[in-house]
Design brief:
single chain, 222 residues, alpha/beta, two-stranded antiparallel ribbon, 6 strands, 36% helix
Length: 222
């Protein structure tokens, strides 16, 4: 694996050396050779490559990658340019417009957020084509739980944005005395009206960052 840069190699080296990670790698070698798996193996760790550890301002937790062609590229909720917006992302944009008055963009690529310090981390990093949650039992939960705990322990004043039950279950991994935790329903059409719409997490994130002397996130993707 190529170095991740941005301070991640040093932080995550104990995980990469762990036997549990080696089992994940063995599983993935077989999966990528026998099935169509998303994202492309070269995009697998893009969330780390785009967001250096020292620059993290917020962490948005997704579940597993999109499982249809040309969508997933290593950033949760994000799709490549030119790809139709998935329903959850459409709802995220609706909430941003309601919260901040920013009009919905026609692009689903969230790289701009990542480059500003928003770590877009899925709790499962890979998926088999057309099969949601197909890699949820291969060991990724241990790995990403460990990543969340390491970020919590090694940084200060980060906003952890947890949407939906899966993400909210990670709350015990985060030190509430050092960080802000924002949580609500998932932006999926099945649950967005149960608390996601109106959560104002985007303005609340920026208010917290400003209070702690950090540059706010420009959520506008136009």
């Amino acid at each position: 694996m190529k170095p991740l840069g941005g301070g991640w190699d040093e932080l995550l080296s104990p995980l990469f050396a762990d036997d549990r990670y080696k089992k994940i790698r063995e599983f993935l070698l077989k999966e990528y050779s026998e099935h169509v798996v998303y994202p492309d193996m070269y995009d697998l760790y893009n969330c780390f490559r785009y967001t250096p550890l020292s620059q993290i301002k917020a962490v948005i937790l997704g579940q597993d990658p999109y499982h249809e062609p040309n969508q997933a590229h290593g950033l949760c909720f994000s799709v490549r340019r030119g790809v139709r917006l998935p329903p959850s992302l459409q709802n995220i944009y609706k909430e941003i417009e309601s919260d901040l008055g920013i009009r919905e963009p026609n692009c689903g690529d969230l790289t701009k957020w990542a480059e500003q310090g928003v770590l877009l981390l899925n709790t499962t990093l890979t998926v088999r084509e057309h099969q949601a949650n197909s890699h949820s039992q291969c060991g990724w939960a241990w790995f990403t739980d460990s990543v969340i705990k390491l970020i919590s322990d090694s940084t200060q004043n980060v906003v952890f944005i947890l949407w939906g039950g899966n993400a909210r279950s990670k709350t015990p991994l985060i030190d509430k005395s050092k960080h802000l935790i924002l949580q609500c329903a998932h932006p999926s059409p099945l649950s967005a009206y149960n608390g996601f719409f109106g959560c104002k997490h985007f303005s609340k994130t920026n208010e917290y960052l400003i209070e702690h002397g950090k540059q706010p996130i420009d959520w506008n993707l136009q």
